[in-house]
Amino acid sequence: MSSLRVVVWGENVHEHKNPKVGAIYPKGMHAAIAEGIRERIPGAIVATATLQEPEHGLSEERLAKTDVLTWWGHLAHDQVSDAVADRVQRRVLEGMGLIVLHSAHYSKVFRRLMGTTCSLHWREADDKERLWVCNPGHPIASGLGPQFELPAEEMYGEPFLVPPPEEQVFISWFEGGEVFRSGCTWRRGNGRIFYFRPGHETYPTYHNVTVRQVIANAVRWAAPQGHWPEVGKSPNARVHPEPIRPKP
Amino acid sequence: MSSLRVVVWGENVHEHKNPKVGAIYPKGMHAAIAEGIRERIPGAIVATATLQEPEHGLSEERLAKTDVLTWWGHLAHDQVSDAVADRVQRRVLEGMGLIVLHSAHYSKVFRRLMGTTCSLHWREADDKERLWVCNPGHPIASGLGPQFELPAEEMYGEPFLVPPPEEQVFISWFEGGEVFRSGCTWRRGNGRIFYFRPGHETYPTYHNVTVRQVIANAVRWAAPQGHWPEVGKSPNARVHPEPIRPKP
Amino acid sequence: MSSLRVVVWGENVHEHKNPKVGAIYPKGMHAAIAEGIRERIPGAIVATATLQEPEHGLSEERLAKTDVLTWWGHLAHDQVSDAVADRVQRRVLEGMGLIVLHSAHYSKVFRRLMGTTCSLHWREADDKERLWVCNPGHPIASGLGPQFELPAEEMYGEPFLVPPPEEQVFISWFEGGEVFRSGCTWRRGNGRIFYFRPGHETYPTYHNVTVRQVIANAVRWAAPQGHWPEVGKSPNARVHPEPIRPKP
Amino acid sequence: MSSLRVVVWGENVHEHKNPKVGAIYPKGMHAAIAEGIRERIPGAIVATATLQEPEHGLSEERLAKTDVLTWWGHLAHDQVSDAVADRVQRRVLEGMGLIVLHSAHYSKVFRRLMGTTCSLHWREADDKERLWVCNPGHPIASGLGPQFELPAEEMYGEPFLVPPPEEQVFISWFEGGEVFRSGCTWRRGNGRIFYFRPGHETYPTYHNVTVRQVIANAVRWAAPQGHWPEVGKSPNARVHPEPIRPKP
Asked: CA B104 to CA B58: how far, in whole Å?
């Protein structure tokens, strides 16, 4: 089997604006996320791409060679070009896996694939978050116990305006009294999509070993199961050459 | 429009064994549930049925005239006859609505319709429960705010082994640190099913005005939208009399 | 109960370009569709809107007072402004029903709500189409037999690249040998969506009594069940004023 | 990776009663199905089991070591013991894959997992069947073209009374004018389920190379992705030892 090719996309803005974020992620959040995947998927080819690169680092050629894309963004969703958002959407429909992280619930890519606002409630107050596993046998929960905790995170609360998830992998409990569907899967076309809630920029969440385990599990789970290259074509079908014989 | 015909089914065992339960529900839990529906759906014909009646109060004739059935059971799931469980299941497939309450997650009727164990975690420790609305526009959440609280309830925790709900109406937060998908809908055949978590027998939950509002909303929502009387038939189809002409 | 307010949207281009279409639909396809709904839903307020009107006839004010919108388009999907497409999408999420007809599978509105290409195969060869009812108890199939036929229609064939339908109401059989999921439902936010395949402009499909019955049934089915006005807001949540007491 | 362990279950009744069936499948239908899987999945350990064996060949020990089970039955669904049906259901929930073939739509195992009647229409008239691929990128359609044909088969027609499939892989077109959802997937607990329509006993369907390809693809697809051994337990949860600190 050929190597799994992963691209970790990072908006890469907070890291340079907010010293607190820069201190937690000196090489960028994307570098920490990529490191966690490399550690856990031996043989995977894990690269990064950022908003600031030409075509945001996501050229047609590169996406064509990408099996799974992870996406973190927050401040600059609108700076992602429509052309690149369209390109990512089409590649997901063809079969590329997509892992959507935290505030990327509001990314162009995720909103286009969901068709909804993807809105939610939020609070920054160092809430303890406890993530419960809803299907202990799910590959994305592999190696986890019944729940795991993050000592402090931004809170996200329901209602989360997405289409009904096909699988509920995690639901979060927050110290301040809220709940959130924090691990959800969907399929669109031939691609698998996983939304994973944790990862506010001011916390060291992407250094957490369990969070890294979940992301690596999700990357493996989202690896393409097949390919559908003509996903956007609407061909004119000829009449089948063999005439259909009527039933007597 | 003709009146909505509702049957509230109660196991009616705890009420006679446990003085605490008898004190909260002197006429039985089913009587309190029925009262709440009557208050909120003027014109509805709301009757009760219990385990102890012949055919558990659910004869073929009676079910045929029932639009929505609510079900509470706990200690005596096994005493419900297979014949009655089969009958209820078939009526749901035909179009009767079914509201499954609290410990009825383990009822024969619900387990047969779901095809799974319907297992979960639980704890009796007077946990505060906060139920969050996941879709504020859903008819079952009509008239509610973003969340509502029950001061003390039994805790139910994930994983809840059911097929993926079609709609997530409520998710519960528990004071002890757990979460639960406490309001879920499914459709089976032509029938609508709503599972609603609250209602442990030792708490006055079915006297709570918001709980009563949710149950009445759910009864209205689950009213039959159509009828499919031949739901279990596998007829032999004749060849269509008009011969199909082949395409030239 | 107040009257159901329906807007029938028509692209209104073929009717003026192609004499064959103009002969079948002298007042426009939208007029025929509206007439069919008026006939079957007494008391409904059924109006039309077309591409050529200011804001395509779908101002903010008008959409706010619309319960169900039907949409037919083909040649001019790109001429629908992004602002109006966004507006319709948001109203569906709030609770407005949407009936998507035939070639509107490629409309901006439907593609945005689905998140997929909505592509398919097609052929114009006067195929006989037979539509089978997959759930005889579904409100959209009310009054129909097991199947109904259209003597000649454009063929649409699988694969149809949409998210998995929540309900399969119809599947079409075509004389030339193809199949298609021709009646599908989805919910997005609080809105109900029904895609219905028949309706190529060169056939008198919207004069067919069964097709009219299906569309009227669908309009009734898609009527708003509730309202979610803040569907696109992501509010900052205050900490709940009442402190959470830890479990002993 | 350890070898995939497959058990092909056959009712094994028609083969001994009907000379026509015995001539097509001299070693039994199960032997032909097993042969097709062995040819296409090198290294898989493929065994058979039949109704007539003790515990129908499906002891607790054997099922515990089975990754994917295929099931064909028709005449003797009622002779399958409830204990074995329960056991298979529980193993599917834990993670075992299940491939349900043709008339096994009426098997105890499938009906319990679906919760519905699984009824349909049928006709034995040597109909040509054309199966269309609804998702060309799906692993179960790997290696197939847009459609494939069986020259003569029993017809199955809609309505097919099952819960909404999570993925529609195939839809069949029949020469006599019917359609059927002939390739459907569901997940229950941690197990994957695939229903595949073709395979009437009087036709050499399980010798067809494309049918064999689909079954082998499905077996690979249904291989367990994880394990959930405590699938039927409802444990009493202790209060989490670390007290929850209230939000200030």
From this structure: 17
